[in-house]
């Protein structure tokens, strides 16, 4: 602990000096950015060993000369800074850090280093159906996925979807995903879903759910306890469990299940606040029965009323806003403006790649677009023109990192680049066409950056992507599995229905 405190003190000094010469510091970062290639790729690539060997497990890593967007309130944004990773954790953040012998050095050349992104709601099991629902509404999704299509899933389809979905997430710098897994119709489906998550070195929260079962039988048949005992003997692992089950409509029979989750220290997430499906009754039910707490994340939430938002804020419960989903499928307007008004804690999510993208750059942009666009529209309708935007880019970046960490109860471990936390990091190139010149790191992350800029990804201290290539991840194998899964699902769905669903 002493080392961490010492590290923090040196960081504070560094930041003060930076603040004293912010313009000069930014200028240095900008020059470095323009002149160098992240990772020294242009000069060092030919003589370096392969990434898997260079970043072998247990070898410390230092990122040198980065623009570090720490998302740590005390550290802020550091120019020309280093981040040292030892074992699974961030050992130190600062300038010209001393390193242990044998440390792997990544010269970032002014690259942009951020915490790994956290997605608090993604139905990863649906990855094989990527893109088929691009024209759908929520009603069409419900009819298809929870009518016939979901029932066509074999255990291996869940495994394949989860595996490819987590590979995709890692590639985009999404280091933690709450896999909202609500097609666990048999124990075999559940085990296969876990297998798919474990096949990829990403951090996942396995949201145990079954949209096809009755609420009473689902949790008390012993299946969740079996999974906890057999697949999650420790919470100190990359994949951890919680409950993902809709309290829509509220049902007294769910009270024992909520007690079960609380007794076992499992968080709970439910969709809710959806126009035409659910208003405040989920919140009222949880509050009246003593279960509205920081352990609860409600997804979407655009249909809640003032009382609902007030109760969420008072209880410290979370919203997961999936703006791309809500704007296209019609669950309700993305409620970030309402949540900000009432002080509800927020995280962001992508929902499903059946329609949308699976990266948090898109989530941040969609959220900003929706929030600001509505404010402008309402002003115009009043005959006014806004002179400033209320929602700032830094807030949205906070929701995509620390907000997600808090919603998962992991804020002490992930979500910011803070000495002592687990090392989940994303290094973005700043020599790409959209990332140079780099003048506003947070602004670039929110409105400029994309998947192609993600150079290096670290999860739990392990390099899983470097120089734009996944490391120690069998991408071709994951693709083969998910393509075979799609073939099966399409055959089950039938050509006529598939074509109608794709283009209708
Ligand atoms: Zn969802």
UniProtKB/TrEMBL annotation:
It holds the Pfam family Amidohydro_1. Residues 113-464 form the Amidohydrolase-related domain. SUPFAM superfamilies: Composite domain of metallo-dependent hydrolases, Metallo-dependent hydrolases. InterPro entries: Amidohydro-rel, Metal-dep_hydrolase_composite, Metal_Hydrolase, MTA/SAH_deaminase, TAT_signal. Keywords: Hydrolase. The keyword GTP-binding does not apply. This is Cytosine/adenosine deaminase. It comes from Actinoalloteichus caeruleus DSM 43889.
